[in-house]
Write a structure and sequence with these properties.
Shape: globular
Structural class: alpha+beta
Radius of gyration: 32 Å
Number of strands: 34
Helix content: 25-40%
Distance between the termini: 43 Å
Length: 1064
């Protein structure tokens, strides 16, 4: 939020910085780290904003503000480099992680300490933890606590048991925290600060006994709040807290919030203490990272409770958190697992990396560029040339024009100032600096007026900066409708979503932070998952249609290509061929001519230019350990022009498949008139009806192993012929698939090229459609209900008897045989079964799946499964989904509150509607809550957001909604149901309900109805099943029938929404 400009400053200015820092914070060993030799304008802005009352970090000199040093003694302000060298670990460029262990050993006695020492000795020093947390140490005076290579910090219980301790490696210098709340004896806690690399990290360890003491819990929650709020005052960039909190009624799961690491806590049986603790984490924007059980109460049972928690304010820093063997158990078998984690602590230096050139767009001459391109006779240049020669010639002329008219630089892009800085801010900062220098030059015993004037200038800087930031944020809102990308870009810059991959585990098992090795490791892993096709005869696959998909060069015209070029987003990255979207957009009129000719020539010849078959791969983290290469998804950045050509071909193939009904009705991914909502509605329809009828239902969730990367090219091309894709189009797709190359690119590091021997590129336009066609025949041999969304598939069987379970098992075997035949193996470890319904509680049937080697593995039984982003539980209740949606929305709210200073009505209305409310309404037609508790839980989020707005805090909720021009979420869900019903009846969405909606036959011939309308729906008679009674088709009937004829006969979806606004 501060300026990045770094002007050269005088020695007196440097002196001002040092003296001002000593005023704000008392000196201590941690603060004696070496200061950079230049003072930036950002420091001048930041100083007055800091807290006036400093927080001591540890033992050190007096906290009194030092008097300004006399000009004739400048050496007094120079830091002691010898002392500084001892203050923190000087990390090398390849070191960017901090390893920690955490455990409740239930008494760290001699036997368990020996076990701990043995484990440490077995590791190399590089792999040993830097920090170890322990609760319930049971340490007493005289206890043997020494662990070689570590220094101990402990807080023992006065009586028997308890106690917490933190072991820190000997070379790390820790500092005490003197905040009274963090040293309170009312709870068992220990807090220290370590300087590691270039960062200060606040470490905490808390033990909460297993009791119902509300005062102890209140004190614990207050301590966590104080620690989080004190981070800035303590100059700490992150907080890492471990504790055994004994919340046995809460379990956690990992969720996706905008591509960032996050978890959601679910409280069972509405335990008030657990709920209060979760509210504390949500309100303070903290994340609990442990998502697996950590405690078992006896030897004969598996761990079931998550008592040991790791809490941080920077969840994206966590690279890995795994479960290790406990150090031992108590006499009755109680034990806690060892938590092993890794976090990133410092950015990797890129000084040695090659500088990447960038365009200077402000100096680009697009008119001259267009004139240069337009001066060439492309018909003559392309005459008697192959596709590759024509494309190479176009690239050559394009590169020449770029060199002439679009300048480049290798200097890193640096903003002169933050976007909110105004001339008034600069003037205020300059005046403050001038007054300080004048005060120093005048002497410390005179010119008190100058001192007073400087204090007033500091206050003025704070005021001007606040006004400038508020003004900028208000301007963002006013321009959000015309330029929404500006608002999104600002939020991304504040939240720093895209973080560099700082470490990876190599194939040898070691962890590296070298960027070149990371690129190479990821590239080798991505290539290792490719399938190697045998030369066996192709399987028989009958033709689905005799006609041919007519795609030829005539689909490309200059006008259509120019329109596509003009629609390109200029901020997108360029491909390997170097054609930049901004240049293509600005010069679309002249570039469309040669590009159209190349498109036509490519499709007519069935040849794809070689540059189109090269891709830079960006690894995208999915979930799990960030150190595992298998937890990254390769997204290909291909040629921009290739994607445009793919769009033309995609439209023709999709139109051909839709017209001839070639795509199975079970597929909902990447096809017209279907999506996540239709898939979830159809699946829940089957499940709720089976429960309503008193039957059980089993859902088999299958998972393909690296689905998009495993598609065999020969088999895919074989199937495409059966779907009518033949001739030049088939040849073009074959050329597009065969001979592809890819390399991993992270920032300025790039791996070597690797051949792509299977799969369809993730990030391409044609890839998803080709994958859909490849698995299109999977449901043909299955008898149960199959629902697909691209590679996400589930098989649903209604179980009335044991024979139904056998039939479902036969379908599983049939699906496995299909996967082996078409070389698309399932990841058996991730395939699960869910037993739904009250009649299924005593189910003893075990479903299994065969591996390729013939061995069978029993499928894991799950009670909750994340299905297309929605939590589905075996009792069909939506409580867990509600809790997940609320957690994601509140976490987003916390990040937005941290990013924006303004609390104006207009700003937060835009932020709420754009970033928060979608979490509460995603696919809500499939899981709309009907219990008042769930309804209120969702509504409280909106209530909380409206309370954020300063001008609305003191008025009633209904009035706040009126001023914001929004409705309650409950009314929004009613409106969403009606809109979805209209889309189904208007065939905008296609939903194949298990129990079809019934229209009265006596209204079929009626053109007008005096009461209601002639498109009424008959409700289903439901008794004793709340989940079925509140399913979409039954929930929406009464509301739909209450609409008027004018509303239901709206000519379009937009017209229906307009009519709906008038009647609701």
């Amino acid at each position: 939020m501060f300026l990045n400009q770094q002007p050269k400053l005088s020695k007196n200015t440097v002196k001002e910085k040092r003296c001002h820092q000593r005023k704000l914070q008392p000196m201590c060993p941690l603060q004696q780290t070496e200061q950079k030799p230049s003072l930036t304008l950002s420091i001048a802005l930041q100083d007055p904003v800091q807290q006036p009352t400093p927080v001591p970090l540890g033992p050190g000199p007096s906290g009194k503000r030092p008097r300004p040093a006399k000009p004739k003694h400048p050496k007094q302000n120079k830091p002691n480099n010898d002392i500084l060298a001892q203050d923190h670990i000087a990390l090398s460029e390849s070191t960017a992680t901090l390893r920690f262990w955490a455990n409740n050993p239930c008494s760290l006695n001699a036997q368990k300490k020996d076990e701990l020492t043995a484990r440490l000795t077995a590791l190399t020093k590089q792999n040993q933890p830097d920090v170890m947390f322990f609760t319930e140490t049971w340490f007493k005076e005289g206890s043997d606590t020494v662990i070689n290579g570590y220094q101990l910090h402990r807080a023992d219980r006065d009586g028997r048991g308890g106690g917490v301790a933190i072991y820190v490696r000997s070379e790390i210098v820790p500092y005490n925290v003197t905040l009274s709340q963090l040293n309170s004896k009312n709870i068992e806690q220990l807090w220290i600060i370590i300087r590691y690399g270039e960062e200060s990290i606040l470490l905490g360890c808390i033990y909460r006994p297993h009791d119902n003491d509300d005062e102890y819990l209140t004190e614990t929650i207050e301590t966590i709040k104080v620690a989080k709020n004190a981070l800035d005052g303590l100059n700490c960039s992150a907080m890492l807290l471990y504790g055994d909190f004994n919340f046995s009624h809460t379990w956690y799961e990992e969720v996706d919030v905008g591509g960032r690491v996050a978890t959601a806590g679910h409280v069972v049986n509405d335990r008030s203490g657990d709920i209060r603790f979760q509210s504390c984490l949500e309100e303070n924007n903290l994340t609990q990272m442990v998502t697996f059980p950590t405690y078992r109460h006896s030897r004969d049972v598996a761990p079931k409770s998550t008592l040991d928690l790791v809490i941080t304010n920077e969840p994206d820093r966590l690279m890995e958190l795994t479960e290790g063997d406990s150090l031992g158990h108590t006499a009755i078998g109680q034990t806690h697992c060892l938590l092993i984690g890794t976090i990133t602590v410092s950015a990797i230096s890129t000084a040695s990396m090659q500088k990447k050139p960038r365009f200077i767009w402000s100096r680009a001459d697009f008119a001259a560029f267009s004139q240069f391109i337009g001066a060439h006779d492309w018909m003559t240049l392309f005459l008697d040339r192959s596709v590759n020669e024509c494309y190479a010639k176009l690239a050559e002329i394009y590169d020449e024009a770029v060199k002439r008219f679009i300048p480049k630089t290798t200097e890193p892009f640096r903003k002169k100032s933050e976007v909110w800085v105004t001339p008034e801010v600069r003037a205020a900062v300059k005046l403050k600096q001038q007054l300080w220098l004048r005060y120093l030059a005048a002497g410390r015993h005179t010119h008190r007026e100058l001192k007073r004037a400087h204090k007033e200038a500091c206050k003025n800087v704070v005021r001007v900066v606040k006004l400038a930031m508020l003004g900028f944020e208000e301007d963002l809102v006013h321009t959000s409708m015309s330029d929404p990308m500006r608002l999104h870009a600002y939020i991304r810059s504040k939240q720093q979503n895209h973080e560099l991959i700082r470490a990876i585990e190599t194939a040898e098992g070691s962890t590296t932070t070298d960027q070149d090795v990371i690129c190479r490791t990821l590239n080798e892993y991505f290539q290792s998952v490719f399938a190697v096709e045998p030369d066996d005869p192709l399987p028989v696959f009958q033709r689905r249609i005799e006609s041919v998909c007519a795609v030829n060069e005539n689909i490309f015209t200059v006008e259509k290509v120019m329109l596509r070029l003009s629609e390109l987003m200029v901020t997108k990255a360029k491909g390997v061929d170097g054609f930049h979207p901004r240049i293509l957009n600005k010069c679309a009129a002249v570039l469309a001519i040669p590009i159209t000719q190349i498109f036509r020539l490519s499709v007519a010849a069935g040849i794809v230019p070689d540059l189109w078959k090269q891709a830079n791969v960006t690894p995208i983290f999915k979930k799990g350990s960030k150190l595992k290469a298998s937890n990254y998804r390769p997204v290909s950045l291909t040629s921009v022009l290739c994607k445009i050509c793919e769009k033309f071909i995609h439209e023709q193939i999709m139109c051909f498949c839709t017209t001839n009904n070639l795509i199975t009705e079970a597929q909902h991914g990447f096809v017209r008139k279907k999506g996540c909502i239709t898939n979830l509605l159809e699946a829940r329809d089957v499940l709720t009806e089976s429960v309503h009828l008193g039957f059980a239902a089993d859902v088999i969730y299958t998972d393909f192993a690296k689905a998009f990367d495993k598609v065999p090219h020969r088999l895919l091309l074989h199937k495409l012929k059966a779907y009518g894709i033949r001739g030049s189009l088939h040849k073009w797709i074959e050329s597009w698939l065969i001979g592809r190359q890819q390399r991993v690119q992270i920032e300025r590091c790039t791996s070597e090229w690797k051949m792509v021997t299977s799969g369809v590129p993730q990030g391409s336009v044609l890839g998803p459609l080709l994958f859909v066609l490849y698995i299109n025949d999977l449901p043909d041999g299955l008898n149960q209900h199959v629902k697909l969304y691209a590679d996400d598939s589930k098989i649903i069987g209604i179980i009335k008897s044991h024979e139904d379970s056998i039939r479902l098992q036969n379908d599983i075997d049939e699906a496995v045989q299909w996967s082996h035949k078409w070389q698309m193996p399932f990841n058996v470890e991730k395939c699960k079964v869910m037993h739904v319904g009250r009649a299924n509680k005593k189910s003893t049937f075990s479903y299994s799946m065969a591996n390729k080697d013939g061995t069978r593995k029993q499928l894991e039984v799950t009670n909750v499964e994340r299905d297309l982003g929605v939590q589905v539980s075996d009792d069909l209740k939506v409580r867990i989904q509600v809790e997940t949606a609320v957690a994601m929305a509140i976490r987003t709210l916390g990040r937005l509150k941290k990013s924006f200073r303004s609390r104006s009505l207009l700003l937060w209305r835009v932020l709420y509607l754009t970033y928060i409310r979608p979490h509460l309404e995603y696919a809500v037609q499939a899981w709309s809550p009907h219990l008042r508790k769930d309804i209120d839980a969702l509504e409280k989020v909106q209530h909380r957001v409206t309370k954020t707005i300063s001008s609305l805090k003191s008025i009633a909720y209904e009035e706040r909604l009126r001023r914001l021009d929004i409705t309650t979420l409950e009314k929004r869900r009613e409106r969403g149901d009606l809109i979805e019903q209209f889309k189904i009846l208007a065939h905008i969405d296609e939903v194949d309900f298990f129990v079809p909606q019934i229209h009265p036959t006596w209204l079929a011939s009626s053109s007008y109805c005096l009461r209601g309308h002639n498109r009424l729906l008959l409700p289903q008679r439901v008794k004793g099943c709340e989940e079925r009674k509140n399913f979409f088709t039954n929930r929406v009937t009464a509301r739909w029938n209450a609409l008027t004829q004018v509303v239901v006969e709206a000519s379009s979806l937009d017209a229906f929404k307009d009519q709906l606004e008038r009647v609701l």
